Amino acid sequence: MSDLKRLYRELVSLEIELWNGIEGRLQAEYGLPLTSFEVLHLLLCRPGVRIQDIVEEFSITVGGASKVVDRLEKAGLCQRRANPDDRRSSIVELTTEGRRLTEGALAVFEEELELRIGTVIPGKSVREVTAVLSTLRAAGRALDTERKAAGRTSAPAGKRPVRLTV
To answer: What pTM was computed for the model?
Structure first.
């Protein structure tokens, strides 16, 4: 197996295992799917969030973001209010119950990250890996933007993507 294929497999497998492990704990202790927690956490950290902000933060569709917010709103964890700056959108805010639940779930989330990552690799390595992954994501987004602008979904024969230095 080539190094790139192995890296791909390791990254995908790690993401799945991290997601499942953290979500399992959040479900067991708070009845909360990780997707819902991620949106609640965003609402906790960034007041004044719109559906469009959720879309951009998590790279999901407007429909997907609306469905998550609808479920959270139905559960009494957030509410929408009119956006005073834009009558076409609303602001999504945590309710008191949503804030309480999110703060408790955040402690579990952080503990699980520490157990699964922090106890395994030192802080310096965490920062280095994070920088490399951020560089890879930026390069992928740039490639996707370039392809979209050119009206294609794959690289033409013989053309190699621009390399970013890490």
So the answer is: 0.81
Write down the residue that tokens 């920088």 correspond to: 131
Residue 93: its H or E element: strand 90-94
The 10s digit of each residue's pLDDT in 19-67 is: 999 999 999 999 999 999 999 999 999 989 999 999 999 989 999 999 9
User: ∠71-102-131 over CA atoms, to 5°?
Assistant: 105
101 token code pair: 């639940």
CA angle 18, 105, 10 (to 5 degrees): 5
Distance from C-alpha of 22 to C-alpha of 33, rounded to nearest angstrom: 9
In angstroms, the CA 89 to CA 93 distance is 13
Predicted confidence (pLDDT) at residue 3 exceeds the cutoff of 90? yes
Residue 39, judged by CB atoms within 10 A of its CB (0-12, 13-18, 19+), counts as buried
Mean pLDDT of 88-102: 95
Q: Is the distance from CB of 37 to CB of 105 less than 8 angstroms?
A: yes
